[in-house]
Amino acid sequence: MSHPHPELGAPPKLPQGGLRVTPLGGLGEIGRNMTVFEYDGRLLIVDCGVLFPEEEQPGIDLILPDFTSIRDRLNDVEGIVLTHGHEDHIGGVPFLLRLKPDIPLIGSKLTLALIEAKLQEHRIRPYTLEVSEGDRERLGPFDCEFVAVNHSIPDALAVAIRTPAGMVVHTGDFKMDQLPLDNRLTDLHAFARLSEEGIDLLLSDSTNAEVPGFTPHERDISNVMRTVFAGAQKRIIVASFASHVHRIQQILDAAHEFGRRVAFVGRSMVRNMGIARDLGYLRVPPGLVVDVKTLDDLPDEEVVLVCTGSQGEPMAALSRMANRDHQIRIVQGDTVILASSLIPGNENAVYRVINGLTRWGANVVHKGNAKVHVSGHASAGELLYFYNICKPRNLMPVHGEWRHLRANAELGALTGVPKDRIVIAEDGVVVDLVGGKAKIVGKVQAGYVYVDGLSVGDVTETSLKDRRILGEEGIISVFVVVDSTTGKITGGPHIQARGSGIEDAAFDAVIPKVHEALAKSAADGVAEPHQLQQLIRRTIGKWVSDTYRRRPMILPVVVEV
C-alpha cells in the first residue's frame, strides 16, 4: 500500500490521458469532504462540506476545505456533484460559490432543496441540475452516472465518473440497510453492472471500517422508541440531526401511536423538516405537528418536542435547556432522547449536556443506555461484500480519520485488491490514475480554513494559539510613559491583569524591577519604544514565571512624551 510522505513536492504536469484525483478535505478527519477530479484541463468537484470545530479551536464557527489550489481555476470547473445533503458534504458550497456564483450544482431533489435553502441565507441563487439514480449526465469530459445508496439521510447517491482514463466510482456516504424505511436500497445490482464494465478506481467511505459485522437496521429503533414512549410520564424531548428524516419519521409514528402532538424546535430543524414534508420524504399524519407556541395549552403527557443539539453544541436548543437558558424548562419526569451518534471529539460536550439534563430531573435515553441510534455508514462486513461485488482495480479509502482509512485499506486487501494499488492519501495529496494504475504524485496546499463570524480565512493557527493562551493563562497589560529624549520613565508603570489569577496589588513587587531595567537601558542610550516594550515584556514575564509558574500574554504599551 502506498502511504503519503510528508516531503512530497508539488505535483508534475498531468500526463496526457491521465485522471488526477485531489482530496481537499475528509481524509484524516470526519468532515469537510471535498474531492477534485481533473481530466484534460477540466475539473469536476464532488462534495464541498464543512468540519465542526473542536475545543482547541476557540471561537471558530466552521472549518472549510482549502480552495487555494483551485482558486485560479474556477472557470475550468464543470460542476459540483453533491452526493447527499449532510453539512459535512454541502456546508462549504456557499463559500465556494461566493468566489464564482455560477458553478452548477448537481444533486438529488432533497439534496438540492437543502442547499438552496442554505444559499438563500447567503443571497446566492445557484444554477442546479437535479438528478436521480439511474441518470447519466455529461459534464465536460466527465460522464457521470448516479447510483442509489442508503444512508442516514434520504436521496443519497454514489457517482460513477467515466473518463477516457478509466472509470472512477465515488460511493459518497453509504451503508447497506437491507430493510430501509423508504425501501430505497443501496443498488448492488448497479454496482455489479459497473463492476462488469470495470471499476478502475474506487473511492470508498471508511467511517465504520473498524466496526466488525453489519450496521443494524434503522427500523430496529422503532421498537425501542415505542418502549420509551410507553413508559414516559411527562413530556418527551428528542434531539436529532436536523437532516435525519427517517429517524424523525419514526419519532412522528411513535407520537401518533401514543396520542401525542409534535413540535419542531430550532431554525434548522423547522426549515429542514418543512422541506422534507413538502417534497414528500416525511409523512406527517394530519394534526400531529403543532407550533411550539401552542404547547402550553397541552398537558405534558401529550407533548413531544423535536430539537437539535445532540452533539452538545453550545448554542443548540438542548444545551440551552440543560443550562436553563431556553424557554423550555426541563422538569422532574421529562424524558429526553438523544437519537444520534457521538461524533469523535464531542464526547465531553455531550456528557456535559446529559448531566445537566439529569440534574433537572430528566430521564435521559441515549446511545449508551438504549438502542436509539444506528450508524449511517457501512461496517466491515458490508464493506467486504461491497468490494467483492465491485472488484476495483485500484482502491482509495476516503471519509475518515487515519485509523478508519487504514482499516478500510486492510479490508480491500483481504478481498484481493493488490496492495500496490491501494492508495492511502490525506488532504492535499494528489493521486494520478494513469494507464490503469493509481499512484501518489505530489501534494497541494490543503490546510484548515477557519470561519469566524463574517471572516473567512483571517483567523490563523497563530491567532488560535493566542486565543488558547488567553483562555488558559490570561493577559497582563503594562502602560508606561517615557521621555522621548532621555528614555527615562515619567509615568507608570500601570499594570493590570485579567484572567491570570494574579491580584493587581501583587505587581507592586515587580515595579522596581521595571524601573531598574529601563534606567539601565536609558543609560545605554536605548530609547526606541519597540525595544523598550520587549524589555518590559521580558522583565515582567520572567518575574511572573519565577513567582507563579504561569505564562500569561503580556502586552506592554510605551508612550513617548
UniProtKB/TrEMBL annotation:
<keyword id="KW-0269">Exonuclease</keyword>
<dbReference type="Pfam" id="PF07521">
    <property type="entry name" value="RMMBL"/>
</dbReference>
<comment type="similarity">
    <text>Belongs to the metallo-beta-lactamase superfamily. RNA-metabolizing metallo-beta-lactamase-like family. Bacterial RNase J subfamily.</text>
</comment>
<keyword id="KW-0540">Nuclease</keyword>
<keyword id="KW-0378">Hydrolase</keyword>
<keyword id="KW-0255">Endonuclease</keyword>
<dbReference type="InterPro" id="IPR030854">
    <property type="entry name" value="RNase_J_bac"/>
</dbReference>
<feature type="binding site">
    <location>
        <begin position="373"/>
        <end position="377"/>
    </location>
    <ligand>
        <name>substrate</name>
    </ligand>
</feature>
<dbReference type="InterPro" id="IPR042173">
    <property type="entry name" value="RNase_J_2"/>
</dbReference>
<keyword id="KW-0479">Metal-binding</keyword>
<dbReference type="InterPro" id="IPR036866">
    <property type="entry name" value="RibonucZ/Hydroxyglut_hydro"/>
</dbReference>
<dbReference type="Pfam" id="PF17770">
    <property type="entry name" value="RNase_J_C"/>
</dbReference>
<comment type="subunit">
    <text>Homodimer, may be a subunit of the RNA degradosome.</text>
</comment>
<keyword id="KW-0862">Zinc</keyword>
<keyword id="KW-0963">Cytoplasm</keyword>
<dbReference type="InterPro" id="IPR055132">
    <property type="entry name" value="RNase_J_b_CASP"/>
</dbReference>
<dbReference type="InterPro" id="IPR041636">
    <property type="entry name" value="RNase_J_C"/>
</dbReference>
<feature type="domain" description="Metallo-beta-lactamase">
    <location>
        <begin position="31"/>
        <end position="225"/>
    </location>
</feature>
<dbReference type="InterPro" id="IPR001279">
    <property type="entry name" value="Metallo-B-lactamas"/>
</dbReference>
<dbReference type="GO" id="GO:0016787">
    <property type="term" value="F:hydrolase activity"/>
</dbReference>
<keyword id="KW-0694">RNA-binding</keyword>
<comment type="function">
    <text>An RNase that has 5'-3' exonuclease and possibly endonuclease activity. Involved in maturation of rRNA and in some organisms also mRNA maturation and/or decay.</text>
</comment>
<protein>
    <recommendedName>
        <fullName>Ribonuclease J</fullName>
        <ecNumber>3.1.-.-</ecNumber>
    </recommendedName>
</protein>
<dbReference type="Pfam" id="PF22505">
    <property type="entry name" value="RNase_J_b_CASP"/>
</dbReference>
<dbReference type="InterPro" id="IPR011108">
    <property type="entry name" value="RMMBL"/>
</dbReference>
<keyword id="KW-0698">rRNA processing</keyword>
<dbReference type="InterPro" id="IPR004613">
    <property type="entry name" value="RNase_J"/>
</dbReference>
<dbReference type="Pfam" id="PF00753">
    <property type="entry name" value="Lactamase_B"/>
</dbReference>
